[in-house]
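Now for one specimen:
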Amino acid sequence: MNSKLLNIRSILDLEQWQKIQDELALVTGMAILIVDYKGVPVTRHSGCTDFCAIVRKNPDTAKYCQKCDSRGGIEAARLNKPFMYLCHCDILDTAIPIVVDEKYIGAVMAGQVMADETDASISLEKILMSTYENSFIDQDGNLREKYGEIPRLPVRRISAIIGMLFHLCNYIVGEAISKNMMSETYEKILAKEGAPGDFTDDSLNTMMDIKEQVSKAIMTKQLKTSEKRTEGTPRHQILRPVVEYIHNNKHENIMLAQMAQLSHTSPSYLSRLFKKEMGKTFSDYVADFKMTVAKELLENTDLSVTDISNDLGFSDSGYFIKIFKKHEGVTPAIFRKYMK
């Protein structure tokens, strides 16, 4: 695929999208913006709350906002679906991945809301732990007041809005890619055949078939990607919450005994069942999963090796480097050098 399509600015008409984004924020009551794969905004923030506007303008806290956007987008791309999480200020945000040819190029970020306190059906991961642990909010009366004004929405409504945005993004990106590829093909045919009046019936038929062929290709690619990403889903009911916990809590040092308690089994039984169903030991599965996430972060972000190590629950970056080299044969730094 053309390398231009791996640049979000080449895919979306950001001026037109901004108009759509502004209206969507107004209708949904959620703040919305698009970021690139580094978490850097490429559109203006629509519907940004007063609290978040203040925090994002402060250089000391804005860097944490950008890290949350970046990590949320990467996690959404890995899951191949929207990823809902809590930011460093415990505010609900969602990353909706924009993926082209299996390459993560950015995300639509929607949120800056609180889940209704009466709804106990949701448990979200806090994607980034900051050094100040929100103490700066308590120390500023105005900021504390703005924090209390953040809108609250029922989880059911939040999920419905995110689902709508996910389908809308897929449609718009798919159409944009199709349009770009048709334009490229048209230029090639024009160069070969001459002026439009000189086109043969075959070349005209080719132009008429392009959109259908491109749409089928995109759909096939999406289906294959979706299937590939769900291969690790366990069939056994006991293992499903265990694997889900591992995937949703990559920042933790997850132990077998802890998962046995979660699945209401003994550690020895869970160990045998895990090996039988998943084809590898519990500890190997956890390590392999974390190394997969590490490779994606090394390839698609500018996070330091230490930050990635911390994000994956390693207390010592030296040990992380040792484990990574054992799995991949090279250090994280060398892997990044040759893959980016």
